[in-house]
Amino acid sequence: MADVLETLKRRGFLQQVTDEESLSRILASGPTTFYVGFDATAPSLHAGSLVPIMAMAHLQKAGHRPIALLGTGTTLIGDPSGKTESRPLLSKEEIARNKEGIRRNLERFLVLDGEKGLLLENGAWLEPLNYLEFLREIGRHFSVNRMLAAEAYKIRMETGLSFLEFNYQVLQAYDFLVLYKEYGCKVQAGGDDQWGNMVAGVDLIRRVMGPEAKAEAMTFPLLTTASGAKMGKTEKGAVWLSPERFSPYDYYQFWINTDDRDVKRFLLLFTFLPEEEVEELASLQGAEIRKAKEVLAFEATRLLHGEEEAQKAREASRALFGGGGKDTSRVPTCTLDPKEAQGEMDILTLFVRAGLCKSKSEARRLVLQGGAYVEGERVTDLEFLVDLSKLDSQNGILLRAGKKKYCRILAAGG
Predict the structure, then answer these.
(1) pLDDT tens profile 355-401
(2) CATH code for the structural domain at 247-321
(3) What is the DSSP string of 147-201?
């Protein structure tokens, strides 16, 4: 079990640790309960959350017990960390809807059966708090001067920090104390932007439970790609983990389009492939590096969406980008109802209906810039009408926006 910390280091997960020797002893002493928090700010997590999730999975495979803590309470406050302005406040109804999507995301990677792993909500203990009692018992352990020295608060002091958000660190620290006392949780982990909050939690446990209390924290890097882009962001926006918001095919394409310089790092972080195999794949040069990217894309998609969806995505990618024939049956599709699928449709409307453009003005720019294709043929005429009679065929009509965005139009029921 002690080796898992070395594994996390070698694979690029560790950024900061409160006390590495102490953490190593805790993990070596036997199965250890640890936790990572996820605020319910959206109905899905995104690819930027994969670093902590994969680290949790490594720890669980090594025999430790994860607690995935859904911030149903802290989401009502809003985390100021890494933000230049306040988050929009969500209603309890919105948070309840969001937590279900996040739960499904996490269960793709972790066993959260109540024994090997737990899924908890901090609203269970935060919402019933008595304010005056909380201030007396917990608030007295916090120094305002020390809190204001935290990087997250420093940044926000320039643009304005609400009293509501100022409480966030106290509440997150209290989460760790509750989990320590009620579940024997000795380790908190999370993104590096949470460092100040996590150190506050370790400090609170020692102040309340005594200086001999064994509790540590570790952070994971906030990744950017070799090109400088934030991990999990594309031109289309966030790379969501829920298939309803980001299809398995698009997810596969996100990974296969990885910059050559990121391939080794991403294979280590986002797959469970042995390090020796990663080294072999990373050693490929020139055009051969495409093979390593295909392995990365397949493994990442398989972990999130399952074997079948990963195979479908790979087949679609090969069909469109070479190496797999001309079968486009696995390409993302859009269906038109029988009333729409008659006669002709102008190209601007069709590209919007296919989801390849958000608006007709965006479709107009695409056509004028030479990035609109129908059945492999570039269309530059804004008045071009697409013959929808081909929708009766098995392959429908294949549209392309730019170099890599495809959609196959079918008639409903076809």
Answers:
(1) 889 899 999 999 999 999 888 788 989 989 888 877 765 567 888 88
(2) 1.10.240.10
(3) HHTSHHHHHHHHH---HHHHTHHHHHHHHHHHHHHHH-EEEEEEEGGGHHHHHHH
Q: Is the pTM of this model over 0.85?
A: no
| Domain extent listing, the chain | 3-220, 247-321, 333-411
Neighbouring-strand partners of residue 344: 387
Q: What is the pLDDT of residues 210-269, one digit of tens each?
A: 989 999 999 999 988 888 888 877 666 789 999 999 989 889 989 998 999 999 999 999
Q: How many residues make up the chain in this entry?
A: 414
Q: By 3-state DSSP, what share of the chain in percent is helix, strand and coil, each rounded to 5?
A: 50, 15, 35
Q: E strands of 63-114, at which residues? A: 65-71
With beta carbons less than 8 A apart as the criterion, state whether 305 and 224 touch.
no
CA distance 94 to 220: 28
3: buried, middle or exposed (CB in 10 Å: 19+, 13-18, 0-12)?
A: exposed
**CATH code at 3-220:** 3.40.50.620
